[in-house]
């Protein structure tokens, strides 16, 4: 290849990269793309993509469970990245000749591997981010006391509705084990089972950690909700080991899982 053709080829590659138009189908993927310093290439994302702050300025393509196909196509993306639950949407987009990438963000290893996968596709270095997650894993302090932990999704005053908790095969279960504890829900059949309060009593967790989001449920009365939990006859209530974590990142399986590991293990071993 002569020097002129080489120059033209390089110019074409650089032009393509400069014109990247990426659409993210979930808040987790959005966070990872920004962490990889490719946020300038994002043209749209799903609802509830709130971090970093500039993500809130992106166009929205609907909820992460029901993205608007027509809107995605109208934005002429060069790449659409979604999670495994977006498979049907990604397959439809591929029929229109749109390049897609599907990632899985269930467990901690999935998150690390997906960051590597996205970074490879975007031609950027993922090492600092993956190293940060590994550092959080390596630095976890395991408490001497062994007990059963239940992680609950959402703080509600009425416990007669379904209570969603962290089961097996999910990164919260990984974190409980990293902290040297046992998940109160032993079955690995379901990663987010719905329990009745009678089921909770039967499992009798020694500690309950409730993951709350002010953004999605700001109207709950925390005192009344905690009173409802403390009224259940469990070891967690008896030992006053029912707490709420409401950091904004706590529900998002992204590069910020490093923060989630530190925060939950800090609470477990308090």
Automatic annotation (TrEMBL):
InterPro entries (UniProt xref): ABC_Transporter_SBP (IPR050902), ABC_transptr_periplasmic_BD (IPR002491), Vit_B12_bind_prot (IPR054828)
Entry-linked SUPFAM superfamilies: Helical backbone' metal receptor
Domain Fe/B12 periplasmic-binding, residue spans: 21-270
Keyword tags: Signal
NCBIfam families for the chain: TroA_like
PANTHER family, A to Z: MOLYBDATE-BINDING PROTEIN MOLA, VITAMIN B12-BINDING PROTEIN
Descriptive protein name: Periplasmic binding protein
